[in-house]
């Protein structure tokens, strides 16, 4: 009995050893496999886009979904070991292949430069601010002074003839308002000429797609006046839902079709901020006025407290929502609006009504 038991124990241990070895071999083989290339041959190129602030987990999921890697978790583990989280540069990468291992892909993201960068231009920026944003992105051939030269002196822009809207700009004035605010994927070697073309093209495409010129004409505005109105609204409101109403008030004042007590003056604080900062460029734009608008930059044509009607040019780059609001403003009998402490807009037909609203909401 004892001999038979001993022999059985040996067999059991042997079988257990085989099972353990097989399990370890399987786990090792599986673990090794998930780090290997998806394709064993030459592979195919799969472009990816990494947004600013995007997490390694999101990147890993995208790589797996696009077939570049076998396993997102494996990528996250190896990326953490190699320190990818701290060194990854946002942008577009067009040189990753399915024949690369996870380690090789991570190395490319760590050491390689993206083929293009994402540059976000917020709504409501003026030309100088836009120039700074592009200049600070690391574009190898972008020159801030070239950008300012082209945009502030449209006649010097080599491709000006491609954009009919530029002919509407008053002589001597800039492209202010016509550089569409959006997120752009710019090649690493994109220069100022390339950037201006992209922004003007985007402006044309959005205007045409939404048929805004025809809508503006129905409200007695040409394309350029629509952009001027949109830029005033853009800097005035805190909530986009208020854009059509505020645009309607400004348009009522500018057209002056109905008797009112405004004298055709828009009384736009942002227009005075633009006038002030154009005369004396500051380090930070769009600071609130410290006095009545009529007392600041009094001689500037952009001061709508002393000059009736629209200013000569837009004051910033408006977004699609405010452009749409300017093309189709709310029709009303209001000639005044007030931004309350909560940021909401209230309206009045006369100056005495406006004063009552001021007492109610601001005191």
List the helices and strands and how they pair.
Layout: H1 2-34, E1 48-50, H2 56-65, H3 72-82, H4 84-87, E2 91-93, H5 102-111, E3 116-120, H6 127-135, H7 144-152, E4 183-187, H8 192-209, H9 212-218, H10 223-236, H11 243-255, H12 269-279, H13 320-327, E5 336-339, E6 345-348, H14 351-362
Antiparallel strand pairs: 1-2, 3-4, 5-6
Helix pairs in contact: 2-3, 6-7, 7-8, 9-13, 10-11, 10-13, 11-13
Name a few traits of the molecule.
single chain; 363 residues; Dna Ligase, domain 1; 3 domains; two-stranded antiparallel ribbon; 14 helices; 47% helix; elongated
Describe the structure concisely for a colleague.
The chain has helices at residues 2-34, 56-65, 72-82, 84-87, 102-111, 127-135, 144-152, 192-209, 212-218, 223-236, 243-255, 269-279, 320-327, 351-362, and strands at 48-50, 91-93, 116-120, 183-187, 336-339, 345-348.
